[in-house]
Design brief:
By secondary structure, the chain is α+β, with helices and mostly antiparallel strands. The protein is built from 34 helices and 32 strands. The strands form six sheets. It has an eight-stranded mixed β-barrel with strand order 23-24-26-27-28-29-30-31, surrounded by four helices. A hairpin with a 4-residue loop joins strand 23 and strand 24. The chain starts with a helix and ends with a helix.
Length: 879
């Protein structure tokens, strides 16, 4: 509740720890808080009563229809609020409701209560404090005394029961003594000072410890006030007591000044107290005494005075801080503006009138309505202060951001505002800084596009709008193919320039109302809203693909890229932004693995594929250590002789649950996750070991080709330097041939050139794999040290029936030979294919016609069989 926040935390903590009973209520009598002593007394928890009206939390006992205690209590509370002073109830009977197995029952209790209003700086009641004292035991004590006296009279007339009378009287006296002792302890521990005075001389009958402590009087019981207090202390005090005693009317004092002597011989001290003198009436209406209760409010008064002094210091500080100060006479509609206020807007002293309209005219049109609404809320008393940031027009026509803060400092008796005072601070630089921070938080610093955070906000907005309008929307997830290769090869500065150009091209492909965002790296998204047909989505996707395939001219460099796009639709595919992002991402992966440079729509089967890919990636992390990976070797045959001349090392994964997993499925996962480094190095060391063994068997170096992923090739750090490793184990560079793809050379940098030179210097040969399927170029064949071209199997497959494939294969062979390169044809499966390639001059071939990839021990048996055949042929030739 708002009222609850008005209570100071320290004040609440003190109340809660007090052994006395305190209940806090709003002016509407809604319970705000209660301390532990109060809750224990009424047998309730705070959760049971907080937020309820007092009458709802503590209903009347229905059995006491003639006694409305709640009405009496509410009347006292109303008096406290009307007068702004504490109100006292000498005694009130009420029932504490308690739930039992037989239903709700009420325990009769008696209270003496003080209701104290706590006022705000404008004199309005902020909340009320009920400070009750449970006098049930006192009431019962008095009733027991009366019954004992009656019982005593009866027993005195019963001659045969004299002994029983004395026993009963003794027992009653003991019980009364115990009750009286407990009551005395309650009075003594009350934090408020309490005293009971009897007779016209105001003789002390009771006074608690707080009373003794405040007035410094230890033994006052049985003494009249005039003899207890000094003349100075009693001045005015005794007169008030006489007046209350004579009139029978209570007196309430608020922050009354009292001079007290803390201890004998000490100087008089000035204290301030809130108190109430309540006449004690007998049954006949006569006054027999006065109940005194109050509390020392000296500290609160001094704190308030310090606050006033602090406010004065603040006012002086504001005048010297550079803030503009204004004072508005609401009745006259005139505003006094300080010199600084006018200077901030570029005006001299006499150039601005003192009307409120002058201020309104200078507020920015977009800010005027919300600003005046907040201002009116403060004037109406709905808000305690007016605080608002808005733009104001300067003399030169420019706009400045201002922070206005003000409070109503005067109201009439009806509560209408009379005067408001405030300040104005120029916060233009702060707002500009906040704008920069906001842009930094929501826009990509490199491309200027919305970043991931702003993208999510806009996607949520578009989903809600599409749901509201019943329209479709699409989300495109775009990944730049081969960007990492370009970034690593040409450097990050070139990579940043490429991303900037790509962002600009994407923006040119969409409508102004659409959103293009960069999520990070080379990942972009496009939100297409308010769609009527799918045609527009496909048109945009194709425009993006066409734009990305255009060469990127990056200073002196030229890079070639493409894009893979995943598309998902709302509401057909998903109902939440999270689902849309996940779906588009999955569709993008499908497009990428299907050959790149294409778009793919999301389908439900993609979710299953994505989950499968995720599980497969997790399993792959443990495959190497679990011994699930092994290297198979496929022979590379010299076509002219049909002999095994070398081999290619091929990685295989036997999953314990799925069985053999196709390399096309797990190699991309290894590259994406970075596992390719460990796996690739392991394959290399296995191939090197086999090369060493088979070279010993054959008596000549035996070369094994090992595929090296662009991810490995472009890594800034190599755990194993292949050339150094071969030297370390005593193998020649001829033992290994490194197989790379065309994409690595397409956007090659000096890093690639240096690495290839390192291989050449170490004697390691390089084979260009899958030649003819990418951006085949004579330029990089001349530029780099390449030893072998491997014709992709897609050209070999139909070479016997397709004239075009045959022409391409023959052209590659001829070109390679003229450049001094050897040619290896992949995927040879029939004798006819072998014969055509042999006739075209192809040097080597590999494929199922010769042998499938096999484990090392099987491949070794093939080599041994070939060696035995060679020996047999040699012997026959000798004979």
């Amino acid at each position: 509740m708002n009222r609850q926040r008005d209570v100071e935390p320290d004040y609440k903590a003190a109340l809660r720890a007090s052994p006395n009973l305190y209940l806090l209520m709003s002016p509407e009598l809604i319970i705000i808080d209660a301390n532990d002593a109060y809750l224990q007394s009424v047998g309730r928890t705070l959760e049971e009563i907080r937020g309820k009206h007092l009458a709802m939390a503590f209903p009347n006992n229905p059995a006491l229809s003639d006694h409305d205690s709640m009405k009496t209590m509410c009347a006292s509370l109303k008096r406290a609020m009307d007068t702004g002073k504490p109100d006292f109830i000498p005694m009130i009977r009420y029932g504490v409701a308690r739930n039992t197995a037989d239903g709700q029952v009420f325990d009769d209790r008696y209270w003496s209560a003080v209701h104290t209003p706590v006022l705000d700086e404008n004199g309005k009641v902020k909340f009320l404090i009920q400070n009750p004292i449970d006098i049930t035991e006192m009431f019962r004590l008095r009733r027991a005394l009366e019954e004992a006296e009656t019982g005593s009279d009866t027993l005195m007339h019963a001659r045969s029961n004299v002994f029983r009378h004395s026993q009963l009287l003794a027992s009653t006296n003991r019980n009364l003594d115990a009750e009286l002792t407990m009551l005395r302890q309650l009075f003594d521990h009350a934090p408020a000072f309490i005293a009971v005075l009897r007779g016209p001389e105001h003789v002390f009958e009771l006074a608690n410890a707080a009373y003794h402590q405040l007035f410094g009087k230890a033994d006052v019981t049985g003494k009249p006030v005039r003899k207890v207090l000094t003349e100075t202390e009693a001045r005015g005090y005794v007169d008030l007591l006489d007046s209350v005693y004579a009139s029978g009317t209570e007196y309430v004092g608020h922050e009354a000044r009292v001079m007290v002597q803390a201890e004998e011989g000490a100087p008089l001290e000035e204290v301030f107290v809130d108190f109430i003198f309540q006449p004690i009436l007998e049954d006949d209406g006569s006054v027999s005494g006065i109940f005194v209760q109050g509390q020392d409010v000296t500290q609160a008064r001094r704190a308030r005075e310090e606050l006033r002094a602090s406010n004065e210091r603040l006012r002086l500080a504001l005048e010297g801080s550079g803030d503009g100060v204004w004072d508005w006479s609401i009745v006259k509609n005139e505003v006094s503006y300080s010199t600084r206020w006018k200077e901030m807007l570029g005006y001299s002293e006499q150039e601005i009138s003192n009307s409120f309209d002058e201020w309104e005219r200078r507020v920015h049109p977009d800010d005027l309505e919300p600003t005046t609404y907040v201002l009116q809320s403060c004037l109406d008393g709905k808000e305690s202060s007016f605080i608002r940031e808005f733009r104001m027009q300067c003399k030169d026509g420019s706009w400045k951001w201002m922070l206005a803060r003000a409070v109503v400092v005067a109201r009439n008796l009806e509560g209408a505002p009379l005067r408001m005072t405030g300040t104005m601070t120029d916060i233009s630089e702060k707002r500009q800084s906040e704008e920069r921070i906001w842009r930094h938080a929501n826009f990509d610093a490199l491309t200027g596009l919305p970043n991931r955070r702003l993208f999510r906000d806009r996607l949520e907005h578009e989903v809600k709008k599409a749901h509201r309008n019943g329209r479709q929307m699409a989300l495109l997830f775009i990944d730049l193919d081969r960007f990492k290769e370009v970034n690593d090869l040409l450097g990050h500065d070139i990579g940043d320039l490429l991303l900037t150009q790509a962002a600009r091209r994407l923006g040119d492909c969409v409508r102004h109302s659409d959103t293009v965002a960069r999520l990070g790296g080379d990942e972009f998204t496009v939100i297409l809203g308010e769609l009527d047909t799918m045609v527009h989505v496909e048109d945009i996707a194709q425009k993006i693909l066409d734009a990305l395939t255009e060469p990127f001219r990056l200073g002196k460099e030229v890079a070639y890229l493409s894009g893979s796009i995943g598309i998902t639709m709302y509401p057909a595919d998903a109902s939440t932004p999270e689902e849309l992002v996940r779906n588009a991402d999955q569709a993008m992966y499908v497009a990428k693995h299907a050959g790149r440079n294409q778009f793919s729509y999301f389908t439900r089967s993609m979710q299953e594929e994505a989950h499968h890919r995720l599980r497969l990636s997790g399993d792959l992390r443990h495959a190497l250590n679990a011994g699930q990976l092994n290297v198979h070797y496929q022979p590379v045959v010299e076509l002219a002789t049909g002999r095994i001349a070398k081999a290619e090392a091929l990685l295989r994964w036997h999953h314990p649950g799925l069985g053999p997993v196709d390399p096309s499925r797990f190699i991309p996962l290894a590259e994406e996750s970075g596992m390719i480094h460990d796996i690739g190095n392991w394959v290399f060391t296995q191939a090197a070991a086999c090369s060493e063994r088979w070279s010993e068997i054959l008596g000549a170096p035996f070369q094994i080709g090992v595929n090296k992923s662009p991810v490995q090739f472009l890594s800034q750090s190599e755990d194993i330097n292949w050339a150094s490793y071969l030297r370390h184990v005593g193998l020649s560079g001829q033992s290994i041939a490194v197989e790379i793809t065309e994409g690595l050379l397409l956007n090659a940098s000096q890093v690639v050139a240096d690495k290839l030179l390192e291989y050449r210097d170490a004697g390691i040969q390089v084979a260009l794999d899958d030649f003819g399927t990418g951006y085949s170029s004579m330029a990089y064949l001349k530029k780099f040290d390449i030893d072998y071209l491997k014709i992709d199997q897609s050209f070999v497959r139909d070479i016997t029936t397709n004239e075009g494939d045959r022409a391409i294969a023959e052209s590659i062979i001829m070109m390679a030979h003229r450049l001094g390169l050897k040619v290896i044809a992949e995927g040879i499966e029939t004798p006819e294919q072998r014969d055509l390639l042999t006739a075209a001059g192809c040097d080597f071939g590999q494929g199922f016609l010769f042998a499938r990839p096999a484990p090392a021990e099987w491949f070794e048996r093939m080599l041994q069989e070939q060696q035995r055949n060679d020996v047999a042929v040699s012997r026959r030739s000798m004979h």
